[in-house]
Design a protein that fits this description.
Layout lengths: L1 E6 L4 E6 L4 H10 L6 E5 L5 H13 L2 E5 L2 E5 L10 H4 L8 H9 L1 E5 L12 H9 L3 E5 L2 E5 L7 E3 L5 H11 L5 E5 L5 H12 L4 E2 L5 E5 L7 E5 L4 H14 L1 E6 L7 H9 L3 E4 L3 E6 L9 E2 L11 H8 L5 E5 L10 H5 L4 E5 L2 E5 L8 E3 L3 H12 L4 E5 L11 H7 L3 E6 L1
Helix pairs in contact: 1-2, 1-7, 4-6, 5-6, 8-10, 8-12, 10-12
């Protein structure tokens, strides 16, 4: 089991490049199935979830090569339509293969996806949307079976702007006859990145980043598609919150500042000095911060649920009371009992968490509960006195490429060991 060993008290100083986006590369890897050709993806982070997606692609019959942030996928061979349970349970994002396999094969069979235990992640929105396109859904032996001899473009309105359901509709609708109009679509930047990749591969999609996306029934048809994945906005938030926890001055390069504006605005209101440039963000944190304004997680462009635990760690020693309302996942406060072991004062009532800033935190032994919660524990430990051990079954490695090395490059005393 990986163990993060952190000795707090060091200021962070320096500059870092932001890694490629986990939440963008995963649906693009699934989308590569549609091309029937070769995709060369650049800027791919080295993550457990990326490895799991690569294994799924190989299991489906694709040729895949990985080398130094580049992934080459050859999907010329007609893929298998079944994803084994052992691969599905490794990550929740594996449900993204639902729309891609259906579009390419006309049939898909898979089990419920795995990943962090953040509460119910029903795929009913995905299935309802695919049924609207003409698919038939059935259940067999704990698996979902979706078949469609012919998909037909239509108008679909999602009950909730689900990122996964939006992406699955975009993928499946490429194989539909006629035009599909998806309303109440998710607006996340990763949706825009998926559209950009698919269009580069020969599809015809417009509207990503707005509540309405229009997908022409046109399968990608490029023999070679080359694409660079967008930077990871949640990793950027993580590194900025790390500086807020520990104090210091950090510069992040190769990112899109607009993607994280709602988080940098909170950090600025807490007393951090934030300077925005074209593709850079510079943050300086000096002395004790102030409590952050009330935070409510919402679909993009609202405050991202993935950044909630990270900003909470930055509030643990802030003067005053910070209030968080979690509106996306019901179990997204599983990190709170662990942060309390450091001496944090946090009260949870339903979906609301109230943080009263304390003057000091003390190192302790913690256990990571999920991807972002585990990262939040590492960040909180940077601002604690003494040594903290964070035992992790692999959650953090699902979303961060060499987080320990990145933090060490900024001057933190952090290393990851194997217990």
């Amino acid at each position: 089991m990986p163990v993060w060993r952190i000795v707090g008290g060091d200021r962070l100083e320096g500059a870092l490049e932001v890694q490629g986006s986990k939440n963008a590369v995963l649906p693009i890897l699934a989308a590569s199935l549609l091309t029937g050709g070769v995709t060369r993806l650049r800027g791919c982070p080295a993550l457990l979830d990326v490895d799991a997606s690569v294994e799924i692609l190989r299991g489906l019959g694709c040729g895949v090569m990985q080398n130094s942030g580049e992934i080459l996928i050859d999907s010329a061979k007609r893929p298998e339509h079944h994803v084994p349970h052992a691969l599905m349970e490794r990550m929740r994002s594996s449900v993204m293969f639902l729309g891609a396999i259906l579009a390419r094969c006309g049939e898909v069979r898979l089990s419920a996806p795995g990943g962090c235990e953040l509460g119910a992640r029903p795929i009913d929105l995905h299935l309802k949307a695919l049924e609207a396109l003409g698919a038939e859904v059935s259940h067999s032996g704990g698996e979902v079976v979706v078949r469609a001899a012919r998909l037909k473009g239509t108008r679909i309105r999602l009950d909730f702007p689900s990122v996964g359901a939006t992406e699955n509709v975009m993928l499946a609708a490429c194989a539909a006859e006629g035009e599909t109009v998806l309303s109440n679509a998710a607006r996340e930047p990763e949706i825009v990145d998926l559209q950009s990749y698919l269009n580069a591969a020969g599809a015809s999609i417009r509207g990503a980043g707005t509540p309405e996306i229009v997908i022409a029934g046109k399968m990608p048809d490029r023999p070679l598609t080359e694409y660079t994945v967008m930077p990871d906005r949640i990793v950027a938030c993580t590194l900025l919150c790390a500086a807020a926890c520990a104090g210091g001055e950090v510069e992040l390069r190769s990112l899109v500042p607009a993607h994280i504006a709602i988080v940098t605005d909170c950090l600025r209101e807490m007393g951090c000095a934030v300077r925005i440039e074209r593709d850079r963000v510079l943050l300086r944190a000096e002395g004790r911060l102030r409590a952050c304004p009330a935070v409510e997680t919402r679909p993009y462009p609202g405050f991202p649920t993935d950044a909630q635990a990270l900003l909470m760690s930055a509030c643990l020693k802030a003067e005053g009371e910070s209030v968080f309302a979690e509106n996306i996942f019901e179990n997204r406060y599983r990190h709170v009992p662990e942060l309390r072991r450091l001496g944090a004062d946090i009260r949870v009532e339903g979906r609301t968490a109230t943080v009263r800033g304390v003057k000091a935190l003390t190192g302790a032994e913690l256990t990571a509960t999920d991807l972002r919660g585990g990262a939040a524990m590492v960040l909180a430990a940077l601002g604690a006195e003494g040594e903290t051990l964070v035992r992790d079954s692999g959650h953090v490695l699902r979303g961060y490429e060499s987080l320990d090395r990145s933090l060490r490059a900024l001057g933190a005393e952090v290393r990851m060991e194997t217990d």
